[in-house]
């Protein structure tokens, strides 16, 4: 990948899109992870107003500190960057206490993890509406179009996706080129939805390098019969997630009414 040229292309694309949409700039949720760090920096480099919002919900301290350190770094390097920190923990807790009890706490735990992402999305769109900004998505290609590792109408609810055509390794290349804090680059990727230290790999069962490989193999027309051992295990993980999460990746189904019934 020609990293400088790709970086320049994304920055110009962001600027052109915002100009044509007649909006002021961008709002980005900052998690302390690599994807939001790269996305926010690319937005900042457009020269347009870029609002970085940190939205902790029972967040691990190291995630919060990485997010705030990144925002400080942006503020020191770009005059067009501003920030807000909104503690959503009381909002989340109030919602949880208002919901009826359930039989399966495990299912409830998963539903509430996704609820965290949706509360953050709602908050980002609040600021977007208030200041005339676009919500910039932080998903990469493997997450958005490979395994569907995001929350529908949560972190998947965005106006535009500047890094969604980059696989994770390419995001890391751009991060190094941009000078992103090393603490963020070396931190294990996590969605930060559980209030503990579990990583994306813990949840998925495969690393992003492995998932990139599986994505390439599927695109090449390979099947399970072509692999054995760990490769077969990873390929099965990837294809299963790709299959069950198609509902996130395709447009909302519309029941089309036949003309003779209208």
From TrEMBL:
Pathway: Cofactor biosynthesis; NAD(+) biosynthesis
Recorded superkingdom: Bacteria
NAD/GMP synthase domain mapped to chain residues: 7-248
Family under the similarity heading: Belongs to the NAD synthetase family.
Reactions catalysed according to its record: deamido-NAD(+) + NH4(+) + ATP = AMP + diphosphate + NAD(+) + H(+)
UniProt-recorded name of the protein: NH(3)-dependent NAD(+) synthetase
GO terms of molecular function: ATP binding; glutaminase activity; NAD+ synthase (glutamine-hydrolyzing) activity; NAD+ synthase activity
Class of enzymatic activity (EC top level): ligase
Any matching Pfam family: NAD_synthase
CDD domains: NAD_synthase
EC code(s) of this entry: 6.3.1.5
Gene Ontology biological-process annotations: NAD+ biosynthetic process
GO CC terms in record: cytoplasm
Keywords assigned by UniProt, alphabetized: ATP-binding, Ligase, NAD, Nucleotide-binding
């Amino acid at each position: 990948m020609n990293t400088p040229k790709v970086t320049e292309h994304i920055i110009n694309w962001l600027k052109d899109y915002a100009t044509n949409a007649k909006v002021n700039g961008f709002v980005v949720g900052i998690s302390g992870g690599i994807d939001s760090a790269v996305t926010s920096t690319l937005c900042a480099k457009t020269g347009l107003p870029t609002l970085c919002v940190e939205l902790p919900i029972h967040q691990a301290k190291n995630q919060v500190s990485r997010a705030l350190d990144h925002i400080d770094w942006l503020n020191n390097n770009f005059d067009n960057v501003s920030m807000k920190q909104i503690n959503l923990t009381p909002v989340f807790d109030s919602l949880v206490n208002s919901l009826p009890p359930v039989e399966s706490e495990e299912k409830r735990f998963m539903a509430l993890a996704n609820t965290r992402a949706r509360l953050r999305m709602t908050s980002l769109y609040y600021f977007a509406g208030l200041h005339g900004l676009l919500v910039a998505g932080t998903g990469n290609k493997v997450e958005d179009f490979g395994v569907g590792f995001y929350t529908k109408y949560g972190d998947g609810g965005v106006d535009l996706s500047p890094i969604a055509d980059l696989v994770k390794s390419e995001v890391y290349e751009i991060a190094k080129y941009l000078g992103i804090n090393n603490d963020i680059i070396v931190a294990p990727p996590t969605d930060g939805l559980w209030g503990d230290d579990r990583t994306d790999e813990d949840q998925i069962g495969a690393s992003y390098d492995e998932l990139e490989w599986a994505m390439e193999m599927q695109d090449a027309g390979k099947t399970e019969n072509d692999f054995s051992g760990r490769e077969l295990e990873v390929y099965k993980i990837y294809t299963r997630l790709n299959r069950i999460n198609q509902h996130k990746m395709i447009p909302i189904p519309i029941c089309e009414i036949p003309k003779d019934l209208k």
